[in-house]
From TrEMBL:
GO molecular function, one term: pyruvate oxidase activity
InterPro entries according to UniProt: DHS-like_NAD/FAD-binding_dom, POXB-like, Pyruvate_oxidase, THDP-binding, Thiamin_PyroP_enz_cen_dom, Thiamin_PyroP_enz_TPP-bd_dom, TPP-bd_CS, TPP_enzyme_TPP-bd
EC number(s) recorded for this UniProt protein: 1.2.3.3
SUPFAM superfamilies registered for this protein in UniProt: DHS-like NAD/FAD-binding domain, Thiamin diphosphate-binding fold (THDP-binding)
Coiled coil stretches, renumbered: none
Family: Belongs to the TPP enzyme family.
Matches recorded under NCBIfam families: pyruv_oxi_spxB (TIGR02720)
Keyword Mitochondrion among record annotations: no
Name the record gives this protein: Pyruvate oxidase
Domain Thiamine pyrophosphate enzyme N-terminal TPP-binding span(s) in chain numbering: 6-120
Primary enzyme class: oxidoreductase
Keywords for the protein's UniProt record, in alphabetical order: Pyruvate, Thiamine pyrophosphate
Domain Thiamine pyrophosphate enzyme central residues, every copy: 194-323
Length: 574
């Protein structure tokens, strides 16, 4: 007699074979057969009950960003499934593997306009690299195995819709998982392409190395390349932490969520070595006349962002290593030293506000406290908006710490879910979430999830009663500020009501005790800091260059943003 197994249990076994150890979602009638399988397999795979499916999908995306492993979330038919969309687009646009399991009504109810029935395949077509409805109970584990492979292969979202009656059926027991066969290989760069790049590097007077997520785990090669060719380094925001922030050749980040030294260098540069990135704002912040060498694993990205003089298809780490071998070293020159000085001035300016006791508070003293209590391997998840701007400027990552956010999709509300993912994936490490009051309010109900699973996450809320990032956009377009101001709330008390330890900070003297308590806490903490509603220095439109602006314009800009001791790169090069 053929041995049988419950179809849903067989599917969960496939997840286990791919080393998936937790899955996020909310049960529903159309997903109950899978819930029963999760109960039966509860010793090997943890079901994490979130309070909103969007939080589950965003957490799954953060899992993938932080670990490189596929994240998994689910939603029941209809509203449970549609709630996943935001998190799935976050995963798609930041190019990470996520599996979404969707409930569906029983097959004998499909196409009968049944309660909560939804034609899910068209809805998820755009967000996915794999999108199938299971057609037989026997194929359920096979389809999920195929979906996981597709998500890994394409660094994207795989969606599987499961009619609820299939999960109750017995099917022949067989090993369908291909996890043991899965391989990730290096694409080795072509020697001739590498050789073509060398004359451009030799001829450059103002070269820049721009890195993205594709250079993860290549810090030693980045450092060697930067010092061999005397090139300053700039990173995409999602690459924060790959290079230690204190590295003297590291200038920071470009565009609006950015640093002054990086934007100025990219406007001046005559060569950009663009490695492992798909930076979408190149047209606005890269010198259009600069020569361009691009290295990427995906040939569809080569030439997408800038006219490319040399395209190299291959692994970032190997490409950097081989370029060093092929090219002669360059001595540290005026270009490198001017950029190092520009960074030094920038950091001195940022740190000059660390001990300001203004009321409402500035953000710099808050970040000083975060840096003070942060462990050597802490993980930071920042929500989007002005909080991201402050985080990339004021967090001083050491190369061992991790950082993530919603990069390309830039969806508000990713902070709390990302913190849940970080603490589940790295239970022994310290985790911070950093959110504005607008973003925190979107997902604050899932502080309950942190409490339920005893996740000692430090959640910092920067409350300025404004969608500050959008307020600045309205200011730039010279329109009336409308729809951007928020009703305030005491989020420390909200945290307490949800079971966390809560602090509401209105004065400088309250910071140190609150952060000391947070560091020692064995349960979630919410620290709501009431900050002044001021715009971060707009490094995307600096009014500081005397060759471009009048003295009165420069003085007005300096007064507004409290700028001091920061000549522009153009002046430092003279």
């Amino acid at each position: 007699m053929t041995e049988t197994i419950n179809a849903a249990v067989a599917m969960i076994n496939v997840l286990e074979s791919w080393a998936i150890d937790h899955i996020y979602g909310i049960p529903g009638g159309s997903f109950n057969s899978t819930m029963d399988a999760l109960y039966k397999e509860r010793e090997t795979i943890n079901y994490i009950q979130v309070r909103h499916e969007e939080v589950g999908a965003l957490a799954a995306a953060a899992d993938a960003k932080l670990t490189g492993k596929i994240g998994v979330s689910f939603g029941s038919a209809g509203p449970g499934a549609t709630h996943l969309i935001n998190g799935l687009y976050d995963a798609q646009m930041d190019h990470v593997p996520v599996l979404a399991l969707l409930g569906q009504v029983a097959t004998n109810s499909m196409n009968y306009n049944a309660f909560q029935e939804l034609n899910e395949n068209p809805l998820f077509a755009d967000v996915s690299v794999y999108n199938r409805t299971v057609m037989t109970p026997e194929s359920l584990p096979h389809v999920v195995d195929e979906a996981i492979k597709a998500a890994y292969e394409n660094n994207g979202v795989a969606v599987v819709t499961i009619p609820v009656d299939f999960g109750t059926k017995e099917i022949p027991k067989q090993d369908v998982s291909t996890a043991k066969n899965h391989r990730k290989g290096l694409i080795m760069p072509n020697y001739d392409d590498l050789k073509k790049a060398i004359p451009f590097i030799e001829a450059a007077e103002k070269p820049i190395l721009y890195i993205g997520q594709g250079t993860r785990n290549a810090w030693s090669e980045i450092k060697a390349f930067s010092e061999h060719f005397s090139m300053p380094v700039i990173s995409a925001v999602l690459g924060k932490g790959i290079v230690p922030d204190a590295y003297e050749n590291f200038l920071g980040f470009a565009a609006r969520v950015a640093t002054k030294p990086a934007n100025e260098a990219l406007a001046e540069t005559d060569l950009i070595v663009f490695v492992g990135s798909d930076f979408p704002f190149a047209a606005y912040f890269f010198n259009p006349d600069a020569k361009f060498i691009q290295v990427d694993l995906d040939s569809s990205k080569l030439g997408r962002r800038h006219k490319t003089d040399v395209a190299i298809l291959g692994d970032a780490k190997e490409s950097l290593k081989r370029l060093i071998e092929l090219g002669d070293s360059r001595p540290a020159d005026r270009w490198l030293k001017a950029n190092q000085k520009n960074k030094e001035n920038w950091l001195a300016w940022l740190r000059s506000f660390d001990d300001k006791s203004d009321t409402p508070l500035r953000v710099e003293p808050v970040f000083k406290e975060i840096r003070r209590i942060a462990d050597e391997e802490a993980i930071f998840v920042t929500d989007v908006g002005n909080t991201t701007v402050h985080a990339i400027r004021l967090l001083d990552l050491n190369g061992k710490q991790k950082f993530t956010t919603s990069g390309w999709f830039a969806t508000m509300g990713n902070g709390i879910p990302g913190g849940i993912a970080a603490q589940l994936s790295y239970p022994s490490q310290q985790v911070f979430t950093l959110s504005g009051d607008g973003a925190f309010a979107m997902v604050m109900q899932d502080i309950i999830t942190q409490v339920k699973y005893k996740l000692p996450i430090i959640n910092v809320v920067f409350s300025n009663e404004s969608f500050g990032f959008i307020e600045a956009e309205q200011e730039d377009s010279e329109q009336e500020k409308f729809g951007v101001y928020l009703e305030g709330a005491d989020f420390g008390k909200v945290g307490e009501a949800l079971g966390a330890k809560g602090f509401t900070i209105t004065e400088y003297s309250q910071l140190e005790p609150a952060f000391d308590a947070a560091r020692k806490s064995n349960r979630p903490v919410v620290i709501d800091v009431k900050i002044r509603n001021t715009r971060p220095l707009p490094v995307e439109e600096l009014v500081l260059d005397p060759d471009k602006f009048s003295e009165s314009e420069i003085n007005a800009f300096k007064e507004k943003y409290e700028v001091h001791g920061m000549p522009v790169l153009h002046q430092l090069l003279k």
